[in-house]
Design goal:
The chain has 2 domains: 5-208, L-asparaginase, N-terminal domain (Rossmann fold, 3-Layer(aba) Sandwich), CATH 3.40.50; 216-330, Rossmann fold, CATH 3.40.50.40. The protein is built from 9 helices and 18 strands. It has helices at 30-37, 65-78, 94-104, 128-142, 227-235, 255-267, 288-295, 306-319, 323-330, and strands at residues 5-12, 17-20, 23-26, 48-58, 84-88, 105-106, 112-115, 149-153, 156-159, 164-165, 174-175, 183-185, 189-191, 207-208, 216-220, 239-244, 270-275, 299-300. It has an 8-stranded mixed beta sheet with strand order 4-1-5-7-8-9-12-13, sandwiched between helices. A hairpin with a 3-residue loop joins strand 12 (183-185) and strand 13. The structure holds aspartic acid. Residues 12-14, 59-61, 90-92, 116, 118 line the site of aspartic acid (ASP).
Length: 344
C-alpha cells in the first residue's frame, strides 16, 4: 500500500446501491464487500484507507444541511489522523454538499475529495471503481499540495464550490463551467497547480461553522411570472437565490415584480442574482435591467453557481450577525467560489 492514510466517509449514492424490487437503493455493507472483493483496491499505488459507512446510507436527493453538518463534523474529528478525506456521495446533490463543505470547513489544511458514480459498482460497466481509484491516487500523490474541497468525477478534477452536475446519463457528469478544471485525468494526470488552493502555513485549526436554521430558497425567473407568487415566497425567507436571465437580467418594467423585490430587501431579505446560463456572470452594472435590480437592493452573485450561492447564503446567515455583512460577503470571494467581472 502507498504511504498515505485516507479517511473515506461513505455517505451513500448510486455507487453502493443494490437493485431492489423498488429500484436502486442503498444497501448497508454492500460497498465495503465489493471493495474487499476487488484486488485493484489493494494495489501498492493506493493509499491505506479506512472506510466509515454512514447510517443510514442516503440517496443524496434526501440530503440537506443537517447531513452536510454531520459530514463536516466527522471530517473535523478524523482529519488530524489522516492525510486527506474521500467522501463517497450520490451525484444528485453532490455539488451542493461540495459547496457547503467548502464554506463550513474553515481553515481546511488538507484535501477533501468527493466522488460517486453514475452506475452502481455491482453493474459490470460501472464508472464507480475508476472514480474511487483515481480519487485515491490523487490523494496518495498530492495530499500535501491540496487544501480545498474538490469533486473528482469521470476524468475531471474540479473545485467543489464551482462544480455542477451537467449530465444525467454520461460518465463525465460534472464540470465547473465558470472555472477551468483543477485537473484532467486521462492516461496522465494533468493538474492545474496555478488554480489549486495549497495549504496555508501557520493557519488556524480547522473549525466547522454550524449551518443553522436560516430559511433560504431559490427561484428561477420565467417569462410571465406573477409577482404575487414570488412575493409569497419572499415573505417566509431570509435569503433568496434569484436565477435571472443572461447576465443577471430581469423584467424591470414589471412594476409589481420590482416592488416585491424592493419590499423584501428593505425587510432585510438577502436576494442574490445568479445567471441562468450555466456559463456566465451576473454583472448587474451591464444593462439597464440589471441596474434597476441594484436599485431595489438585489446583489450580484457574479459567476457563482446557484448551488454555491445557496450554500453560501446558508453559511453566512448562520455566521454573521448583520444583514449588511452577509450582503458584503456574498459578493466577496471566500473560497474561490466566484470571480469578479473584468472591468470594461
Ligand atoms: N439518486 C442518486 C443519488 O444522488 C444518484 C447518484 O448517486 O448518481 O444519491
Amino acid at each position: 500500500m502507498g504511504k498515505r492514510r485516507i479517511y473515506v466517509a461513505y455517505v451513500g449514492g448510486t455507487i453502493g446501491m443494490r437493485n431492489t424490487p423498488r429500484g436502486f437503493a442503498p444497501a448497508p455493507g454492500f460497498l465495503a464487500q465489493q471493495l474487499a472483493e476487488n484486488p485493484l483496491l489493494r494495489s501498492p499505488e493506493l493509499p491505506e484507507f479506512v472506510l466509515k459507512e454512514y447510517d443510514p446510507l442516503l440517496d443524496s436527493s434526501n440530503m440537506g444541511p443537517g447531513d452536510w453538518l454531520r459530514i463536516a463534523e466527522d471530517i473535523r474529528v478524523q482529519i488530524d489522523q489522516f492525510d486527506g478525506v474521500l467522501v463517497i456521495h450520490g451525484t444528485d446533490t453532490m455539488a451542493y454538499t461540495a459547496a457547503a463543505l467548502s464554506f463550513m470547513l474553515e481553515n481546511l489544511g488538507k484535501p477533501v475529495i468527493i466522488t460517486g458514480s453514475q452506475m452502481p459498482l455491482c453493474r459490470i460497466r460501472s464508472d464507480g471503481f475508476d472514480n474511487l481509484i483515481t480519487s485515491l491516487i490523487l490523494l496518495e500523490r498530492y495530499a500535501d499540495r491540496i487544501a480545498e474541497v474538490c469533486v473528482y468525477f469521470g476524468g475531471r478534477f474540479l473545485r467543489g464550490n464551482r462544480s455542477k452536475k451537467i449530465d444525467g446519463e454520461f460518465f463525465a457528469a460534472f464540470d465547473s463551467p465558470n472555472l477551468p478544471r483543477l485537473g484532467t485525468v486521462g492516461i496522465d494526470f494533468e493538474l492545474n497547480w496555478d488554480l489549486i488552493r495549497p495549504p496555508i502555513p501557520g493557519r488556524a485549526p480547522l473549525r466547522v461553522q454550524v449551518i443553522g436554521d436560516a430559511t433560504v430558497a431559490a427561484f428561477r425567473l420565467f417569462p410571465g411570472l406573477k409577482a404575487e407568487s414570488l412575493g409569497h415566497m419572499l415573505e417566509s425567507v431570509q435569503g433568496l437565490v434569484l436565477e435571472c436571465y443572461g447576465s443577471g437580467n430581469a423584467p424591470h418594467r414589471d412594476k409589481a415584480f420590482m416592488e416585491v423585490l424592493r419590499q423584501a430587501t428593505a425587510r432585510g431579505v438577502v436576494i442574490v442574482d445568479v445567471p441562468q446560463p450555466i456559463h456566465g456572470c451576473a454583472d448587474l452594472s451591464l444593462y439597464e435591467t440589471g441596474q434597476a435590480l441594484l436599485d431595489v437592493g438585489v446583489i450580484s452573485g457574479f459567476d457563482m453557481t446557484p448551488e454555491a450561492a445557496l450554500a453560501k447564503l446558508l453559511y453566512l446567515l448562520a455566521r454573521e450577525d448583520s444583514v449588511e455583512q452577509v450582503r458584503a460577503l456574498m459578493q466577496t470571494d471566500l473560497r474561490g467560489e466566484l470571480s469578479l467581472p473584468e472591468p470594461g
